[in-house]
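B., you asked whether I could sanity-check this one before it goes into the benchmark set. Here's the sequence:
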Amino acid sequence: MSLPIVAIIGRPNVGKSTVVNRLAGGREAIVFDQPGVTRDRTYQPAFWQDREFMVVDTGGLVFDDDTEFLPYIREQALAALVEAAAAIFVVDGQTGPTEGDREIATWLRQQPVPVLLAVNKCESPDQGLVQSAQFWELGLGEPHPVSGIHGNGTGELLDALVAHLPPVDQLAATDEIRVAIAGRPNVGKSSLLNAFVGNNRAIVSPISGTTRDAIDTVVQRGDQVYRLIDTAGIRRKKNVDYGPEFFGINRAFKAIRRADVVLLVIDAVDGVTEQDQKLAGRIADDGRACVIVVNKWDAVEKDTYTIYDFDKQIAARLHFVDWAKRLYVSAMTGQRVPKIFDAVDAAVAQHRRRVTTSVVNEVLEEAVSWHTPPTTRQGRQGRIYYGTQVTAQPPSFALFVNSPSLIGENYRRYIERQFRQNLGFDGSPIRLLWRGKKTRDLERDSVNRATKV
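And here's what the prediction gave me:
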């Protein structure tokens, strides 16, 4: 990342994510009244005065406990500090200094990074001065009373921060490709992200549900920039309680919608599950390009027919994304992982592709010459007059006919197959929009669509 980085450090449940959202002017970090919600380090862009920077949220630091995710969280916090131009140490003004705060302060004084002390939960300006004064004992300089919820004091904190940030020239606009990594819990999404980046960018654990937030990582390959978005594992809705996992899954769905292409990660050991089918359907419905990544291929016992049998299983169970390329990889060993970037490039190119009207109509003319629209019992037959591409991402085509009601589902699927066979669009969904020639048909279609919604 070319922007300077500001790491947000503190013990659990002092309101770090709330402060991050306030400094970045958004609501990206998950905020929930429970310690340990944030685990990986998550980045948000921010600016103040003439400075642009990235704010990095980290998990709550605890030094004297090695249970569950805490060692991983410490590793992520240290990684954020290593790449940071400055750090903000967040403490709880209502609780006062704790032994955990003192341990973190001692550790921070040993780091070669300027540290600002933010005393959070100082909702009252008058009381805030009293609450913050007790944190002078940490030996980190002036405590800044702030309220992540209301915004009190954050301007003064940012004024002090920019003095430690280098000036940043206006960056040239880059056509980055947004890649969401989606799948069920524990299929290896975070391992795949780390394999892309080449370091432990995300916490990897055999415990399902480790990743809770959508984690953005920017990498460059040649001249192309990619924004990789690791998402929370998506379980069946009935198994998800309201809380951090609920918010994490919602963030995962948002990540799919904002992505150019989605890597649908499937566990080679488990095979294609019902939840994988639902995820694939959602990706297609959202109009995103897709690459199916079968992970843990190294853990499968193989013979001559293994890959063909798995291909048949995917074709049968994920037939509605049969246009997506399939790759069999191992994030653990790195087997075929570099090929994912090539598949992403190809899928995005097709997702953004435009076809001239003359070519569209050549395909339609040939399709109709081979198979004309069927005739109804009343003797009425559908007729296709012409077609044109109306938008990309995904490629969408308006097909003008005498009456959409005369074009049945089977014939619509036939026309889509002809588009695929003649125009390609591998890796991308396509949309066929059937439009009636007469005004009353258009009005009826509009009413029908409103009724469905």
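One thing to flag: The domain at 5-162 is CATH 3.40.50.300 (Rossmann fold). Otherwise nothing jumped out at me.
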